[in-house]
Amino acid sequence: MELADLLDRLRAMLVQGIGAGKHVEASLEHVSLEGNRATALALVFSELLQNALEHGGDDVRIELGRRNGDVVLSIADSGTGAAEPGAGTGLSIVQALVRDELQGRFELRRGGETRAEVLFPQ
Q: 20 to 30 A Cα–Cα from 18, which one of 30, 43, 52, 77?
C-alpha cells in the first residue's frame, strides 16, 4: 500500500474534523508497506496527529521519508507537549504497534516543540 496517499487522506480528514485554525504542513515521500504493517502505521499516524491537533500548538508539521534505509514518520507541533511524555492509553498503543507490528522505535521529544518520531525498517 502506498503510504503517502493513505496518510494524506487521513491527514485531510483529521484536520477537517479537529484541526480548525491549525496550520498543517505535510512532506510525504512515496513509501510502500504491505497489509498489517500499513494498517499499524495508519493507526499510529492517526493517534499522533490527533494528539498534535488536540493538545499541540497552532503549527503542525508531518514528514514521511527515509533515513539510512529505514522509514521515518515524524509529527511535530509548536506546543510544549503533555506533562508526562508517553503517558496515556493512546501513546501506549502507539508504542506497542511500533514495537510489535513495525519492529521499530518510537521517540517523543519536547523542547521548543513537541516531536513524535517513528523509525522502522521497510
A: 30
Domain count, the chain: 1
CA angle, 44 then 34 then 114, to 5°? 20
Q: How far is CA 74 from CA 49, 71, 94, 101, in A?
A: 10, 10, 13, 18
H helix runs in 1-122, sequence order: 3-18, 35-55, 89-100
What string of DSSP letters covers 53-69? HHHS-SEEEEEEEEETT
Range of the domain at 92: 3-121
The neighbour count for residue 60, using CB atoms within 10 Å, is 25
Rounded Cα distance between 95 and 105, Å, is 8
CATH number of the domain that 81 lies in? Answer: 3.30.565.10
Task: Report yes or no on whether pTM surpasses 0.85.
Answer: yes
Longest dimension (CA), the chain: 36
